[in-house]
Amino acid sequence: MAVDPRGSDLKRYLQDDPGGPVVMLNLLRYADGGRETYEKYSSALRTTFLARYGAEVLYAGDGSTALVAEPGQEWDAVLLVRYPSREAFSRMVADPEYQQFTHFRTQALTEAVLQATVPR
């Protein structure tokens, strides 16, 4: 299952840019012991990279009772992160210092959705 964006994903993401801020929807499914590993990534994100790139966490929560979902569609965690632009997000993930922490995210997850949202 997909966990991390590839170069072609980022290229398409930037090509589809309508301009303005972007809120990224993160749906996360942890591997065994992944919650603790993900916290190492999350801590670096919160303390260093979000402010550096003008981003903020709008919501972070654990998955709970799924009211409408097929078996296996439940998520362990949900995050909404606002970035000032798609370019800011792209610069963050290309930052060599940020890349030193991404292996924690990769190791922590078995599946993820990372989707840009567009305001109505």
TrEMBL record:
Pfam families: DUF1330. It comes from the Bacteria. InterPro entries: Dimeric_a/b-barrel, DUF1330. Residues 35-111 form the DUF1330 domain. This is DUF1330 domain-containing protein.
